[in-house]
Design brief:
Layout (H helix, E strand, L loop, with lengths): L1 E2 L7 E5 L6 H12 L8 E5 L5 E6 L13 H4 L6 E7 L4 E6 L13 E6 L21 H14 L33
Antiparallel strand pairs: 1-2, 1-6, 2-7, 3-4, 3-5, 5-6
């Protein structure tokens, strides 16, 4: 799943295999967003709080690059997160999350399965110098959560049990005789 913290209506679902490289994913993103392919970019594999843990640069003399690292080398589990920094000057990034891993399906060429909304432009034309925060916005996180739930067949209308929620508890209706209390 690909989303943008600045173009909150944009989301895309990419299909790739573990043998595809980070360079393949970068090309797919650039084609989908209609950006020039010669712009430098970097992937950061992140923890569950979007903090970078591993860098996959486009060009480097010290690290393996996007064209050398296969997706399966660093991405194994559903829920893994990445940042795709596409504009280093303005510190702009897309947020990616592994929504589904499956076996037996073959995708010869990386492709976009679904796309919604308009991707962010590569350049921001503005009279003020502002950087865009790459932390996911609340609506972006909600969109990712909703799409993840949809992909996993979870109905969001069902109420989840929250052990902290005591709003429905009425002490007048509590009958302690139905519970055994033992002292240790």
């Amino acid at each position: 799943m690909i989303a943008s913290p600045e173009a909150e209506d944009f989301v895309a679902e990419a299909l790739l295999e573990s043998h595809h490289t980070f360079a393949d994913l970068s090309r797919l993103i650039q084609e989908t967003c209609k950006w020039q392919p010669d712009q430098p970019s970097t992937f950061y594999v992140c923890d569950h709080r979007w903090h970078p843990e591993h860098i996959v640069p486009e060009v480097s003399s010290e690290r393996e690059t996007m064209s050398e690292v296969e997706l399966g080398d660093l991405l194994e589990d559903e829920g893994q997160r990445l940042q795709y920094v596409f504009n280093h000057t303005e510190r702009r990034a897309l947020l990616l999350e592994v929504v589904e891993t499956s076996f037996g399906k073959h995708v010869n060429t990386p492709q976009i399965r679904r796309q919604h909304g308009t991707p962010p432009p590569y350049y921001i034309i503005s009279s003020t110098e502002e950087t865009v925060d790459t932390e996911p916005s609340a609506s972006n996180v909600d969109l990712l959560s909703r799409l993840n739930a949809e992909a996993m067949g979870i109905n969001e209308d069902e109420e989840e049990f929250d052990p902290e929620d005591t709003s429905d508890f009425d002490p007048e209706e509590f009958d302690p005789e139905g519970y055994e209390v033992s002292e240790f």
